[in-house]
Every structure is written in C-alpha cells, then in structure tokens.
Design a protein that fits this description.
Layout (H helix, E strand, L loop, with lengths): L5 E4 L10 E4 L3 E2 L5 E2 L3 E7 L8 E5 L29 E5 L31 H14 L7 E5 L1 H12 L6 E5 L7 H33 L2 H7 L11 H16 L2 H12 L9 H11 L3 E7 L7 H13 L4 E6 L12 H13 L1
Parallel strand pairs: 6-7, 6-8, 8-9, 9-10, 10-11
Antiparallel strand pairs: 1-2, 2-5, 3-4, 5-7
Helix pairs in contact: 1-2, 3-5, 3-6, 7-8
C-alpha cells in the first residue's frame, strides 16, 4: 500500500519530458529484499478516474513512461485509438528501470550512491505490484484495459493477476505466459557481453537484441547487400548506430535487471501453475486479448496462441489477434493502423 504521495519532477527526460513521480515508501520484493524507498515515474493523459475509464500502458525493455509523447504517441491522444477525451491513459516507468523509477541508477538512501550492480533482482510480479502502488496513490481503483508489448505485456499479465476483479481486459502483445529457453539464451548472451565489456558490451547487447526484434524480410528489404560510403555493409552500420544510441540513454546495470525480470517471467508461479493463474483470471472475470506478430522470432504467434488457448481452456474469455507485418517483434512499435483497430475493438467492449 502507498505510504505517501509526494509528487515531484522525474528524470532524466525522455520523449516530451512530461513525467511526474510519486514517492511510495519502502517496498518489499519477491526475493525477500526490501527497498528502503520506491519512487515511480509516470505520465497520465486524459480524464481522471472519477470522470472516465482508465487504461494502463506498460513499456518494453528500454522504454519509458512517456508513451503518449514518445514510443506510442500515434495511439494516444484526442481522436486516437486511446482517445484521451474518452479514457484516461496512464503509463509508468517499470521498477528497476532507467527513467525516474527506482532502479540501479537511483541513489540508495543508505549510502547516498547509486545502487549500480548492487540493485536487487526484480520480477515481473514485483513490477506489476509497483504499478498497483502507483494506481492506488493516484486513486485509480479499476482498469478498463492493461496493455503492453514484450516485457510490458508480461507485466500487464501480472497486473491483471494481482487484482483480476479490478481489470476488465488485459492485452499482452508479443508476450508469452512464461519466457521460453530461446529468449533466455539470447538474454544470457546479452548480459554476458555487458558483464565482460561494460559499455562496449551494452552496445553489442543492443546490436544482438536488434537482430531478434526485426525479421529476415525486414532486413532484406531495408538493407539487402548495400554498403555505406566507407565500405561497411549497411546492416552493420545500422547495428553500430543502434548500439551507440543506447549507450547515450541507458546503462548496463539497468539492462541486466530488466533482462533478468524477463528471464524469470512465469505467470504460473505462486498460482499452482498456469491453470491456476488462468482460473484466477476467469474468476475475475478478466478478458484476455493475446496479440501475436507475424515473423516474430522472439515471442512469436505460437507462444501467444498457447497463452490464449490455455486461458480459454480455464474459462477465460480469450481472443487471439495477429499483427501482419514484416517488422518482426518490433511491429508493436510500428504498425499503427493495425494496433488502432485492435485497441478500438477491445475498448468497444
């Protein structure tokens, strides 16, 4: 439960920089560790909970709370899929993240220095519980929809499981019920690069990750066999650029913590397996709309189909939708028309 509501500017700035933060007091983690203080950075657009239904949008691995001004800007605002004249839209930076919420770059009040590598392990369930602490502090008791892509979809599932009677619908996009071995393997390689090479490793980790976020078709259409004026293959130049960009706005310890949360994601833990978790949603009752992405090699349609079918078998009103795209996993950050149609369909209910 929230212990205070001291609102203050959050930082560093991302997107439009329109973020606030709330201090929520000591926060216990699943592993028994207690953070001496939890601060959560957020952005809220549209009417408040006394005036309209509320939607929670959860960001992916290196995202921020500024969904409406940055990575989901085409979907949030007056007349858009998440119409801020009809619904309130809240996005909050994840626990363990980089942009204003308590994480490795935050100062440990016990030492006055950033936590760094000493920041404790967090789970997607810890992150969902932190979202509910913020919702409580803001007076938001119910959600019309909790939605997110990739890591955000994992956390959205846990948000719904935490209080299924308070979430009318949950929409995980390109997110499974539990992280599979291939994704764990890719994360392992990325974290190993970071541990061995520091910032250079972070840049290489981002480059490796980018090869899992896109598709063979996308790379072929965009780059083919083209080269740059210096003779470097265009795809290599692109990956180098993506690695350098991440160094400018992220840090190795945060990447490690968030990747670790993804690795341990399993909604069946603590609920007697997946059937128990799905039964909890059914008793809510919470609708589930699972969104798969064509050619996603990270958390592809097969995994999302399994999530939907498992939920349906336990009595959840569960629907599968698929984004048709050559963009791979990153289609949830690109395919605005399809996302608009899917979100509008969910909110019409």
């Amino acid at each position: 439960m929230a212990q205070s509501r001291a609102i203050e500017p959050a930082g560093p700035l991302t997107g439009t920089g329109r973020l606030e933060s709330v201090a929520l007091g000591p926060f216990g983690l699943d592993d028994g560790t207690t953070l001496p203080g939890l601060t959560v950075a957020y952005r809220h657009d549209g009417p408040g909970p006394d005036e309209a239904p509320q939607v929670l949008v959860v960001h992916a691995l290196t995202g921020s709370a500024d969904a409406a001004g940055d990575w989901w800007e085409p979907l949030i605002g007056p007349g858009r899929a998440l119409d801020t004249e009809r619904v309130g839209v809240l996005a909050a930076n994840l626990l363990g993240g980089r942009y204003g919420t308590t994480g490795p770059t935050s100062a440990d009040p016990r030492t006055g220095r950033p936590y760094g590598a000493a920041f404790p392990r967090v789970t997607t369930r810890d992150q969902a519980r932190a979202q509910w602490w913020l919702l409580d502090a803001l007076g938001i008791e119910r959600l019309e929809l909790a939605v997110g892509g990739s890591l955000g979809g994992m956390v959205a599932l846990e948000v719904a499981l935490a209080r299924p009677d308070a979430v009318r619908a949950v929409m995980p996009i390109a997110a499974p019920s539990a992280t599979g071995p291939m994704a764990v393997a890719w994360n392992h390689l990325q974290v190993e690069l970071i541990d061995r090479l520091g910032l250079d490793g972070l840049a290489l980790a981002r480059q490796l990750a980018m090869t899992t976020y896109r598709s063979e078709t996308d790379f072929e259409e965009r780059f083919g066999r083209s080269t740059e004026p210096d003779g470097l293959p265009s795809i290599v130049s692109y990956l180098d650029h993506q690695g350098r960009k991440l160094i400018d706005r992220f840090d190795p310890a945060t990447y490690r913590v968030l990747a670790g949360a993804m690795d341990e994601h399993d909604i069946g833990v603590g609920w007697d397996g997946l059937d128990g978790a799905f039964t909890r949603l059914a008793d809510g009752p919470t609708r589930l709309i699972g969104i798969g992405i064509e050619d996603d090699i990270l958390y592809g349609p097969r995994q999302v189909h399994a999530l939907v079918e498992g939920a349906r078998g336990a009595g959840v009103e569960a629907t599968y939708r698929e984004i048709r795209s050559t963009k791979g996993h990153d289609a949830f950050l690109v395919e605005w028309d399809q996302l608009t149609a899917i979100l509008e369909e969910a909110l019409r209910r």
